[in-house]
Amino acid sequence: MPDREDRPVPTVVIYDRLSRLFADEAPDHRITECRRYADGRGWDVVHVATDTNVSGASPLESRPGMREVLAWLPRVDYVLAAKLDRYARSVLEFQRLLDAAKTTRTTIVTADGVVSPENASIIVNVLAAFAEYERDMIKDRITNSKVYFRARGNHLGGNTPYGYRVTGPVNNKRWAEDPVSAAVIRECADRLVNHGATVTGLVRELNERGVLPPAEHARQRAGRDLRGQRWGSSALRDVLYTPAVRGWLIQADAEGKRRVFAKQPVLDAEGMPVAAGPALLDAETWSAVRAIIDGRAVGRGTPRGGKSLLLHVAVCAECDGPMYRQRRFVNEVDYSTYVCREGVGKNGSHRANVVTARYLEELVEADYLERWGAFALQRWQEADGSAVLQLGEVSGQLDNLVGSLANLPAGGRAAQRVTAQITALEARMTALESEAAHAVGRWVDAGGTVADAWAERDTDGRRSLLKDLGARVTVRPATPGAPKRFDPARVKVTYLGPAWVRDADPYDVRMAEIEMEELLSTRD
C-alpha cells in the first residue's frame, strides 16, 4: 500500500466491538453507520475489524479485532467507530489507543460526531488528564487491597497451587483442599520418604496412570480443553517443594526470583507464615521431602550437564521410538550412549539398539553444519499490533527524556546517561517502526547464519535448531558379530528443511527446494 502522502483519498479502518452478541445487537447497523460517515467525508474504507463477546475494559492487545486495527494504524489516516464506548470502556485503554495513534499520525474518530477530525486534539488532552488521574487511583487502590487481603490470608488471584481449589466470596477467597490433586501430593510424598522412590520414577508412574499434571488438572476443573501435557520431573519437584503444601501464602524472595525454590511464605506482623488454607503435608513429612529433593539435586540454580542434544531427534529404526541418552562417566571419560528402551532387557520387543552418544552427536553436528550452516537463520514475527502500542510507549519515554536533558548541565554524567538512553530508545523506535510496517505475520532475518546460531547456543538451543530444520536421526542396531566400534553406516540423517520454507507458499517452497538442491549438490 502506498504511503499516506502518495494517497489522493484519505483511508480509514472501521472498528466495532460487542460485549455480548444478541440478535437485536448485531453490529451491522453500526458498521453501516460508519460507512455512511466515511462516504460523507470522502474516505476510503480499507478494512473492517470486529470483536464479539469482548469486554470494553479488556487490554487492546487481547482483542483479535483490535489487533487488526493496531496492525493497520501505520497505513491509514483514520480509525472510525460508531461511538466512543466501542473503542473501550476504560479511560486507560482508550488512552493507550490514542498514544499508539499519535505515534503513527492516525486520528481516532466516532461516527456520532463526539470525536471528529476537527476536535480530536481537544478530546485527546482531556482524556489524557483523566487517564493519568485514574491510573494513580487504580494503582493506590490495588496496592492497598493486596496488603489488606494478604494479611488476612486471602487468595489474591491467579492460579491456585496444585492440591487446592478456591472457595468463598469475592472479598474472602480461601484455599480448600482439592481431593484429587491433594491425594497425588500425599501419595508421592509417602513414596519418597517411606518407600525409597525417586522423582523420575514417580513421574513415569503418574504418566502411565494418566494422572493430569497441574496445568492440565486446572484446565479440566475449569471445563477447558486439555492440551495433552504430561508430568515432568521439574513439575513434580515444584508441587512437593513449595511452602504452599503447608497451606501458606507464598511470594517471590527479596530479589524477585519467581522459581519455586526461591518462593518464601508470606509472614504476618509476628513473623509467622500466613495461612490461606489447610496443610496438605505435616511439618515432619514436608521437611523430609525437601531434604530428599535437595540431597538429590545436582547444582541447583546452575546449568546442568549431560543434556541430550538428540532427544526427540534420534529414533530407533526397529520401532520408530525415541532414543534416550544414558549418561556414564568413568575416570572423567564420557561413555554415554543413546539407547532405545524397547530393545532393553529380556522383555524388549526387538534386538538391542545402543550407540555411543559422543560419536553420534559429532556425526550429526558435522552433517548438519555442512548442509545448513551457511543458510541465513530466520525467525517468525507475528503482526499482532503490539509494535504499534510499543511505539506509543517508547515515543512517550523519548519525550520525557528529551525534556529532562534540557534541564541537565551539558557534558555532565547525568546528561551522558540520559543521552545514552535516548540513543537506545531511538534505535528501538526504528526497529518498531519497521515491525509496524507489516499487517501480517512473516519470517524475518534473525541475523547471522545457522552456523553462527549453533556456535552461540547451548545444548537446548542447538536441539531447537535441529527441530527447526526438521532433523531426524534414524539409528539401526549393530550387526551381530560386527566389531564393537562406532559405525556411521548405522546412522541415517534426514531433514524436512527449514520451518520458514515449509510454512511458505507452495510455489515459493518449490523454488527454495530447487535452490537448496543446487546448493547441496555442490557440496557433495
The largest sheet is: 4 strands, parallel
The number of distinct structural domains comes to 4
Radius of gyration: 30 Å
Shape: globular
Which percent range describes the beta-strand content? 15-25%
Number of helices: 17
Strands, total number: 18
What distance separates the N and C termini?
A: 44 Å
The percent range for helix content is: 40-55%
Q: Looking across the biggest beta sheet, what order are the strands in?
A: 2-1-3-4
Overall mean pLDDT score?
79
Sequence stretches where pLDDT stays below 50 over 5 or more residues: 254-258, 298-306
SS-derived structural category: alpha/beta
Describe the structure.
By secondary structure, the protein is an alpha/beta fold. The chain folds into four domains: 4-133, Resolvase, N-terminal catalytic domain (Rossmann fold); 164-296, Alpha-Beta Complex (Hect, E3 ligase catalytic domain fold), CATH 3.90.1750; 314-378 and 445-521, no CATH class; 383-440. The chain has helices at residues 28-41, 64-72, 84-87, 91-103, 120-151, 179-194, 199-209, 214-221, 233-241, 283-296, 357-372, 386-406, 413-436, 450-456, 459-468, 499-502, 506-521, and strands at residues 11-18, 44-52, 78-81, 107-110, 164-167, 174-177, 250-251, 264-265, 314-316, 323-326, 329-330, 333-334, 337-340, 354-356, 376-381, 442-449, 471-475, 491-495. Strands 2-1-3-4 form a four-stranded parallel β-sheet, with helices on both faces. The chain has a three-stranded mixed β-sheet with strand order 9-17-18. Strand 1, helix 1 and strand 2 form a beta-alpha-beta unit. Helix 4 (91-103) packs across helix 12 (386-406) and helix 6 (179-194) packs across helix 10.
